[in-house]
């Protein structure tokens, strides 16, 4: 039997530990999570914490892949009472996902959740609250409500935030708790922590979006602390402030017309939103831009426009599509805002199809005399793209731009004529269709009047090479429309068209019949010139032949058109007919200019009926949960309620050289409200000083410490934070020493007063504790500190 030395044993243990460490890396876990599935139950029941952590990480990795791992729920629940913080954290992540699907099994651990609500670690308390509120069993809703009331007064802002987020889940489980949850929301709205305030507004938006009375007294606080809230809370706060502003303020564009100024609170809102346009979070930028678009004057939207354009070049393709949708709607609402930024919408080869379509749509909306040359130059390259769909869309857009701007008509027609020589039939057909539309536009026709005849001759010569029915019908219609000025071209085109009449599509047959009638109507007029009798007889013979073909055609539209035109031509030759001599007037009457439009333009116009940036705006249909934007108020409302918070200045604290703070005074308490030195620190967090609560009678005996200055308070606060973060495995002797020191300090700080013996709850005592007391002179403080040091030395000697 081989002898195993101590060194070999240590080496093997080290290799096993390093191997397990490699297995626990998240990259390796994610890639190999589906391997050894049969060992997970064994690992979850293991007595080693590392093996449990490994199994739990594999389960969470499979959850992130969309795998259903609810079969392991009983095995995971058994570890909810583990002493390892890492294990409990992973167990809670698993339970957050499946507690709603397995409420009966989750109820087995409800005692553990309740015990964790009093854990020293705020993260454990918050996660226990999240899991408890995620158990959708109406029977325990009173228990959840009691836990939420306790958590809403927790010392940790993270736990109070978890309580605010749990309120909508409680109401969805038990609607009877709605009123109680509203009281908690009102309480949490008084919180000065931006971490809690954002979640409170989120619950407000979900449970009672129209309860604006809960926002009145907090309006200025929300505007001031908006920049310090976390990114996702900023989105919820902006949504609530948008609805509030629309209901309580007057349309700023109407005020500009009447020469009146904006309300001061309205100005505060707009000023607070502008820094958020520089946020690194695209959702925050979109929310801020949405608020500015819907609440600020039109001439103040330039910063919002630039912020959206910035996102266009710094986001993924999905984000770009969402941003472009909003820019397209903004272009329809206020085209002048984007007319100077036409180059920002140039197409790239790597752009997705849906992004290219939106950029082309915006081109058509913002086209004007200043940027038409730039847009047409870009379209000249796109019409020769290898992507035929993109080339066709670019040709259509040329027609839109040319119809809007007369100065580029010559360039546009030259591009379209050049495309007639393309070997792609669909490109030629679309060019013909757009050219026909442009020649019917009054502005375009006058700009290209000298080239019209040569252009029609070119189109007539390409008639045989074009097979697309719509394009052939457009050419024949153009020839008939100008039959009086180009009679020879019209006669020859009619002869060629009649040869293929039986094989043509219905739309082309209709135009051939109309062309023959127009030629007969214009023959003999002054504009038609000299036409010999031989040509007239040939035209008449062709006309009779085409009427016979149409008489037996399968399409009833063609037969009906033939009978109509036959009757009009016969009436033209009859001397006693009501229509005698009026065929030319009927057929050659001036036509209405067609509206050069595009499907994308109609789509963008439809998007404007939804709130900018909403899901309904993206889908162009009202989805469930969508709330329409309220109409503007006729007069400013709620000003007296917002004025209930009066701005005061806190007197300078001895030893503090920093900037003065402003305090928002309300009827029931005082709340510290910081001023920001840098408006661009959108992602930073401002330290909110403790709340100054009004002292209740009998609370003077609760004051434990007195401070001569803010520096002493901060030093002591940091030491207290370190004590709270100690691990549970600390020595009992150290705990005893701390307790003795606290007892000693209580006796000195209270001046020998007798302790109250009314068995009050310890948490209520901490809530009522006064944070700031400035009563002692510096000399007395030094004496007390010396006495405390001597007492501590005596205690240490006693312990030894």
Automatic annotation (TrEMBL):
Acidic residues: compositionally biased ranges: 714-734, 747-800
The name this protein goes by in its record: AP complex subunit beta
Tagged with keyword Transport: yes
Lineage: Eukaryota, Fungi, Fungi incertae sedis, Chytridiomycota, Chytridiomycota incertae sedis
Domain of life, per lineage: Eukaryota
Family, similarity comment: Belongs to the adaptor complexes large subunit family.
GO terms under biological process: intracellular protein transport; vesicle-mediated transport
Purpose of the protein: Adaptins are components of the adaptor complexes which link clathrin to receptors in coated vesicles. Clathrin-associated protein complexes are believed to interact with the cytoplasmic tails of membrane proteins, leading to their selection and concentration.
Pfam families: Adaptin_N
Localization, UniProt: Endomembrane system
Stretches for region Disordered: 652-686, 714-800
Keyword tags: Membrane, Protein transport, Transport
Gene Ontology terms: cellular component: AP-3 adaptor complex; endomembrane system
Bias (Polar residues) ranges: 664-686
Biased composition (Basic and acidic residues): 737-746
